[in-house]
Amino acid sequence: MSDHKVDNNALAADNPTVSARPPAEALRELRRWRWQDLVFSARYGGFFVLLAAVLLAPLFLEGLYEFDLAILVFINASVAITLNLLVGYAGQISLGHAAFFGLGGYGTAILATRHDWPALAALLAGVLLVALVAFVIARPILRLKGHYLAMATLGLGMIIYLIITTETGLTGGPDGMSVAPMEVFGYLVFDELVWYWITGILLLLIYWLSVNVIESPVGRALRAVHGSEIAAINSGVNVTHYKTLVFVVSAMVAALMGGLFAFYSGFITPTSSDFMHSIEFVVMVVLGGMASVVGAVVGALLLTLLPQFLAAMADYKWLVYGLILMLVMIFMPKGLVPTVHGWIRRWLP
Amino acid sequence: MSILRVESLTKVFGGLRAIDDLSFTIHPGAVHSVIGPNGAGKTTLFNLITGVYKPTSGRVLIEDRDVSGLATHQRAALGMSRTFQNLQICMNMTAIENVMLGRHLHLDGRFLPSLFRLPRIVRGDAEARERCAELMEYVGLGKYINAEASGMPYGALKRLEIARSLAAEPKLLLLDEPAAGLNTTETAELDGVIARLGDAGVTVVLVEHDMKLVMNISEHIVVLNYGKKLAEGTADEIRRNPDVIAAYLGAA
Amino acid sequence: MFSDFLQFLVTGVTIGATYALVALGFSIIYNASHVINFAQGDFVMIGGMSAVFIIATGVPMPVALLIAVLFGGLVGILLYKGGIEPARDAGVIPLIIITVGAALFLRGVAQVVWGRSYHALPPFSGDEPIRFLGVVVMPQSLWVLGITVLIVAALGYFFTRTMLGKAILATSHNRDAAKLMGINTNMVLLVSFALAGLLGAVAGVIVAPITFTYYEVGVMLGLKGFVAAVLGGLGSFVGAIAGGVILGVTEAMMAGYISSDYKDAVAFVLILLILFFMPSGIFGKGGVERV
Q1: ipTM at complex level
Q2: Partners of chain A (3+ Cβ pairs below 8 A)
Q3: In a domain? residue A292
Q4: Distance between B86 CA and the closest CA of chain C, angstroms
Q5: What is the pTM of this model?
Q6: How do the domains of chain C map onto residue ranges?
Q7: Domain B1-79+170-252 bears CATH identifier 1.10.1740.10
Q8: What class is the C2-277 domain?
């Protein structure tokens, strides 16, 4: 998996170098510091807003229900950000990501509840289980492109979902199973506020680390895989390695969030791993904006809150949900955040 | 020592021998050209050299090393870089990022250092950005340094590919029909860029069917026809070769 | 022993014929537009559900079925006009999301208009089983097979003998060339979506007496139709039919001889194996990316 590291000495030594001094103006432009770059960057502006929101929201949230929603937003946003690394940046669609969420959740729940594993060990085992599954499947599955990749990830997700539904003895079947509360070093994590901080801080961490990856040679390689796989390979990028890497990493984060979700809600059902849940994750990414970290968070926020608003008109939920998806994709195919960002950029000097 | 050697290379597609028992040697330095009419097998040859295709028989050697078992990205790591007849530009990236992609092998591409944004990652990227700006200026793209790739004209994108290839600081630069689709002015500019590369000591292998471009700047020419080597020599020798005149110039 | 096998075979071919019709819908739309229509299964639901409710208003059954099928075609046209045409150049992933949105929308509408309960359509010609070589065949199975064969023949005629059919085929091979030849490619797309809607609705109508129908019946049927289409090679009509039948028979054999627990997983295991080992499907043509 790591033959991409080359002996740089072989390259350097006797290579002729060519260069020319760019016009001073162009170089200045390249180095110029613009306040827009700070305010509208994911690393600074976006992170600051997210940080402020996570820190200040508890002052405004009232009651279990609102905290519950915030926690769900954090969990979904964490999954969406890393799924975006795969779908938005590397351009590899996955229609089965909820299966990793569900597998992580059930793995954790079964070990902690049925086998009395310590909570953190169970979480870790759930994540490692999913990492293993994702790693084994990555090579054959990521050779596929476009619709075939969509079909294969969908199929993988369905198989995992069907196993979870059918192995009643292990998982409790379609009715789901209850999960023992999370106990860490003798402390019972039960309070909504504690869960708020756990999931909120994890989201901030995942956000920050993802931006690090995006703004690095790894991130550039991932975007190149999307833009032109041929150009990437010929530039020495080990495409298989990076595809596998981002697939496994995003699956692991989904699994971690699945495990936390199981502990938090005290209950897990197979719908956590079903096709519709996978679609929801993809829609968060696409609605908020592909290849945009901020977009993933916004998408997760909207898609988590939307059903709550629609709950008032329960019967019309799916109708409205479907309509919104279609309209946004028709009128803003790049997703909300990149489209709005584009508008703002046209407004600014 | 030769930088590139092709030994009895053969590639059969279905029943068609796209490359047929081809052998030649490229010595370091200067501009070399592979010419031939459309369908002579020029691009197939590049795809065999870079490892996109597996040869039916024969082998490719880079600096006397048999690279048959190596994947394309591993061959790139040996100091080989190429451009494409049909543009391969990442339209989801800015112009300079496309060039920086070419520096991938000189940067730390491991996951963990990037994840934690170690100082070397930040420094490496900053240096790469400056270096790539210089390269863009070198190929005459100074004014596009801050542009989005998707907003650049065709001729500029062709040169952007050259800049990306140069960013790898290759020992061997393979250019696949760089003049295709360019107008006369653009072709002349490109001519200059390639000639300067040769002067700077980069070994360039140029695939072209535009005879004029090739004759002016190449020191050594291999002529292909139906996948076979028709002739090999200096520009003057090729110009006088009766087989070449009959098969190529005569038909043009 | 042998009669068991025959019994499973009949069951498998019957359900396989339904998958084949759905798969044909996928392939027709894919050929014309390179869109994977995730609402294809919901055409099946529309066909079955509207038939049930039209019959309930007292319309004679054959007329009701015809209206239901035509309604499916109309929904296909509306999907194209309302969702696909305005986003023609949006790229693969947005188009996938649009059809997913359309699927949710159709399900949502069905749930509001027709409710959440299960419905059965009466069999077309009684439910007196026919016994033959120790095999019990429901008359509805014969209807399913007969109508599927009829439709396949009609499609074959349409695509090889009629101007419009040939235009659709030409467009699927090369849209630009077709446009240059004066083919109205927009019309071709519209007709393709209408055809896919009709096919889906037919599948829904003929299978509803066997499997029941409800507002979410399209989810699994759609996915399995997609599997069948990819199994046979996306875009290949013969492949879609073969893929459907192979899938149906494999499912029936699995359920009959081993266990019905994982009946639904058969499709997805099959598709992963095919994609890993024969990436272009059983009947698809391999494509090499040109550099």
Answers
A1: 0.91
A2: B, C
A3: yes
A4: 7
A5: 0.90
A6: 2-277
A7: no
A8: mainly alpha
